[in-house]
Design brief:
Length: 183
């Protein structure tokens, strides 16, 4: 029987932690991540990778390029629209906590759509409770994370992959290399 694998990427969280660990010019290499998922899953597995992204109501050219690139790599998108909220006369941008939304959708997919493996890709340890609940239900769980120590997920995830500098690139370095190739 072919296994069904649901992969949930917390894109905003990954970006925040990536920049915090490596510097503002660093970004995740989502193509390399997708290839790692395929290598970690059994041969012939049915993989559904979903990138959870936050966007302003008016999508910028950069956001459009980014989400188009994710789709072209093979990711599906779940978008969160950032809505302005008025509080005490101030215009404050509020963003829904994606952790709860990602956890709810992953749990729903596992139970209602028959996914037997759920993999969460995150910068921290926000999903350990979800992994524990799914594991207790007999669903295989995995985590790709920058969290230190990755032991935070022990006992609740079947496998933990420590993300490191191999999964990031420098925007300024890539631009420099592209300029060199153009010469």
């Amino acid at each position: 029987m072919t296994s069904k694998v649901f992969i949930a990427l917390d894109v905003k969280n990954l970006l925040r932690v990536c920049k915090g660990l490596f510097g503002n010019s660093y970004r995740m290499d989502y193509d390399k991540l997708l290839k790692s998922f395929a290598a970690d899953c059994e041969s012939g597995a049915n993989i559904k990778a979903v990138a959870f992204v936050s966007q302003a109501r008016r999508i910028s050219h950069a956001d459009l390029n980014f989400t188009t690139a994710l789709v072209n790599m093979g990711y599906e998108l779940e978008r969160q629209i950032i809505m302005p909220r008025i509080r005490l006369g101030l215009d404050i941008m509020s963003e829904t906590d994606w952790c709860a939304g990602i956890a709810a959708l992953a749990t729903k997919k596992a139970i209602l759509e028959g996914f037997d493996t759920i993999i969460v890709v995150t910068g921290d340890n926000d999903y350990r409770h979800m992994c524990k609940i799914l594991s207790d239900q007999g669903i295989k769980t995995g985590v790709y994370t920058f969290a230190y120590p990755p032991a935070l997920y022990e006992g609740c995830a079947r496998f933990v992959r420590q993300l490191n500098k191999d999964y990031v690139y420098s925007v300024s370095k890539r631009r420099f290399e592209e300029e060199e190739d153009d010469r």
